[in-house]
Amino acid sequence: MTSLTRIVPWSQQLICEVLHPGELAVDLTAGRGRDTLAMARVVGSEGQVVAFDLQPAALEQTSDLLQRHGFVVHSWPADKILPRSAGVFLVQACHSTVGKVLPSPARAIMANLGYLPGGDPLLVTRPSTTLAAVQQSLDLLACGSRLAVTVYPSHPGGQEEGALVDRLLRSLPSDRWHVLSLRAANISQAPYLLVAERIG
Ligand SMILES: C[S@@+](CC[C@H](N)C(=O)[O-])C[C@H]1O[C@@H](n2cnc3c(N)ncnc32)[C@H](O)[C@@H]1O
Description:
alpha/beta, Rossmann fold, eight-stranded mixed β-sheet, 6 helices, 26% strand, globular, binds S-adenosylmethionine
């Protein structure tokens, strides 16, 4: 059973409901690959999922998970533009390179911030690069596309990181964007979700 205040299932649901088979989705923080897998399942073998992570260990876990579920996985260098092509593409690079790697609009983009569960908590997403990745991601969204960012305010720098993303998304014009903020109202420092949908 899904707990009401668990944020990751909400983020996967709000992203996967706008994705269709054959489309392009992006995971800005591959981690253990669970979000990448959720999106790959929806876009299917004709679709494309591009997942970024700085850590080889994260990309290895993502690759193993996706291959165990029957997906074709490729590695892609961060200094080359990625063609529109079916499969799961793993990029070992900072997500602030997303605008350079991806030429075409994506239907859905996820960023589950923080550090690799079970990994080094010092290898954590950072406010400035997260903000750059989110800004570039907004430019990659077409009408009807969504960006979902899960923020962990309890890790060092997490509050500042969340505040920057929150401020940026709140500033988007309401005639072109819908922005949702979803958080547990009675749990302090709980993770929360920000979702932007381009409507025009
Ligand atoms: C909370 S985990 C992501 C969880 C993942 N989406 C999943 O489904 O398992 C955060 C990940 O972000 C990665 N990360 C940290 N800074 C990054 C950056 N600048 N660019 C890309 N990935 C980064 C970490 O290495 C870590 O694996």
